[in-house]
Write a structure and sequence with these properties.
heterodimer; A: 262 residues; alpha/beta; Rossmann fold; 4-stranded antiparallel beta sheet; 10 helices; globular; B: MetI-like fold; 2 domains; 11 helices; binds adenosine-5'-triphosphate; binds magnesium ion; ABC_transporter-like_CS (chain A); ATP-binding (chain A)
């Protein structure tokens, strides 16, 4: 049975003079423990989709169901890592990390310990007492990741979480996120522009069209790749095949779009 | 080695230049200050201005010393200071509280919008007589006057500040299912602290206006009362003395708020 279900979800952004159709008729079922990636060109509505699932904006049409219950009535914990880090500049790193737990009134000595451990694992030891403006973009992104992970969400929504990182750190964090998710059997939706990242982490990959944002293809990642660790996936022979396939599909998508406009 | 020495010399020269500039400015400020009082004294002595109306610095000083010795001036100063400080604090805090309500209840804010505009445009001191009728002639009315001049403008400035906070901070909190009040506490309020601090400086000046006008209208004590009283009995030395005291007190209070502001900004 589907854990997270989107039924004909559409979204319009309104302004005083006009409106934009960001999403058009998105239907999707995601099982518990599944890892989904979303690929699509800039402006196709990926962030909008995540914000709807996170319950931050309300879709103009359609339903979002969690365990068959409408999203805003369910009490599942969702973790949403926004495209920009939005760390609070007036809070120390540790307080930034713990803000989710504070909102949920769950801060304790144990969670503090856990926060320090996670910060250490993402490669930011001994920085808990500094302020965000003392960190680099990549460091801030990692703090934002820890802030999302620490609340132990049932569904993890990640909007380009590794975009500001160097290749090595990125691979290390992919491994970490993958490990945590599999260990606790958590569900995740990842938005990325990196085809390799999508392949190496996910069970299924969703390709989106632009104008209006729509699902064009859903690709099942082969079992051999699914069961391998992210870092090792990239060495499998079928990886390259899938990569080329996705690459071609994305290109086709942008070409048809281009021809429509001219 | 030689190059480094040369650089150091240039740096020293630069520092000295700054110090010299500062001394020079200060010197001129003092000269201006002294010459103002000398000119005032001389023009009064030689009847270039009417000494009965404009008094003279020496007379003002003698009066101040005498009144401070018998303690009466201390009482008046204390009363006015007390009213001003209280008016200032109440005005600022109430303004921030109202702004908070406006932010917490957006519908309420929309309804209130035109009324805030009208209240803001209105010269608050014109409400003086009504306040006195409502609250009775006494400290309460005068403190209310001190507060009322700053409440509305504080509300508007702080509320605008609240609204200008990047909504993405709220998104972060909403993703954790925070209530609106939690969003306010964790994001809106701390993000707007600099705005609130900057209203303090404005409000200090406004509180003085309200309190002095209030004292003009009703009081039996205070520096504003002394001005009116002096005017009625044609004792302009008393009027001038009160003005001098008000200038000193207002400047000291302003400086103190400025210090507080710096302290708060550094802390954040
Ligand atoms: N707050 C908003 N108001 C109006 N229009 C918006 C708003 N946010 C997004 N849009 C529009 O909706 C569309 C989808 O935006 P969205 O941010 O979801 O794209 P995206 O796929 O995340 O892009 P990117 O890869 O660049 O992050 C775009 O056309 C954008 O202009
Ligand atoms: Mg986006």
């Amino acid at each position: 049975m589907a854990f997270l279900k989107l039924e004909h979800v559409s979204h319009l952004y309104f302004s005083n003079k006009t409106y934009t159709k960001a999403l058009d008729d998105i239907s999707l079922s995601i099982n518990r423990g599944e890892f989904i990636s979303i690929l699509g060109s800039s402006g196709c509505g990926k962030s909008t989709l995540l914000s709807i699932i996170a319950g931050i904006i309300k879709q103009t049409k359609g339903n979002v169901l969690l365990n068959n219950i409408p999203l805003h009535q369910s009490d599942y914990v969702l973790g949403y890592m926004l495209q920009q880090d939005y760390l609070f500049p007036w809070k120390r790193i540790i307080d930034n990390v713990l803000i989710g737990l504070k909102v949920q009134k769950k801060v304790s000595k144990k969670t503090r310990q856990k926060a320090l451990k996670l910060l250490d694992e993402v490669g930011l030891p001994h920085l808990e007492d500094t302020f965000p403006n003392e960190l680099s973009g990549g460091m801030r992104q990692r703090v934002a990741l820890v802030r999302t992970l620490i609340t132990n969400p049932e569904i993890l929504l990640l909007d380009e979480p590794f975009s500001a990182l160097d290749y090595q750190t990125k691979l290390k964090l992919e491994d970490l996120v993958y490990r945590l998710l599999k260990q606790y059997h958590k569900t995740a939706i990842l938005v990325t522009h990196d085809i390799g990242e999508a392949i190496s982490l996910s069970d299924r990959i969703i390709l989106m069209d632009t104008n209006p944002g729509r699902i064009s293809t859903i690709i099942d990642v082969p079992k051999v790749l699914r069961e391998e660790k992210p870092f090792l996936v990239r060495r499998q022979p079928s990886y390259q095949q899938l990569f080329d396939h996705i690459w071609a599909s994305l290109n086709r998508g942008s070409e048809t779009n281009g021809s429509k406009e001219t | 080695m030689g190059a480094k020495k040369h650089e150091l010399k240039l740096f020293k020269a630069y520092q000295q230049n700054i110090i010299r500039e500062r001394k020079w400015t200060f010197c001129w400020q003092i000269i201006l200050f002294i010459s103002f009082f000398i000119l005032w004294e001389l023009s009064s002595r030689f009847y270039w201005i009417d000494p009965l109306l404009f008094s003279s610095p020496l007379k003002v000083m003698t009066l101040l010393i005498e009144k401070f010795k018998d303690g009466s001036m201390i009482v008046h100063t204390q009363v006015t200071l007390f009213e001003t400080i209280l008016g200032f604090i109440i005005g600022t805090i109430l303004g921030i509280i109202i702004a908070t309500f406006l932010w917490l209840f957006p519908r309420f804010a929309k309804i209130m919008d035109p009324y805030l505009v009208i209240l803001n445009a209105m010269p608050k001191v014109a409400l003086g007589p009504i306040i006195i009728v409502a609250l009775g002639p006494g400290y309460t009315s005068i403190i209310a006057m001190g507060a009322i001049v700053s409440i509305i403008i504080t509300t508007i400035v702080v509320y605008t500040g609240f609204k200008e906070v990047d909504p993405n901070y709220l998104k972060v909190l909403q993703s954790f299912r925070a209530t609106r009040w939690t969003c306010f506490k964790e994001a809106i309020f701390p993000a707007t602290l600099p705005v609130m601090i900057s209203t303090l400086k404005v409000n200090v000046g406004l509180a003085w206006v309200g309190v002095i006008v209030g004292e003009f209208l009703v009081s039996k004590e205070g520096l504003g009362y002394l001005i009116v009283y002096g005017f009625q009995v044609f004792d302009f030395t008393l009027v001038m003395s009160s003005l001098v005291l008000i200038a000193i007190c207002a400047a000291v209070m302003y400086k103190m708020v400025e210090k507080l502001e710096n302290m708060l900004i550094i802390k954040n």
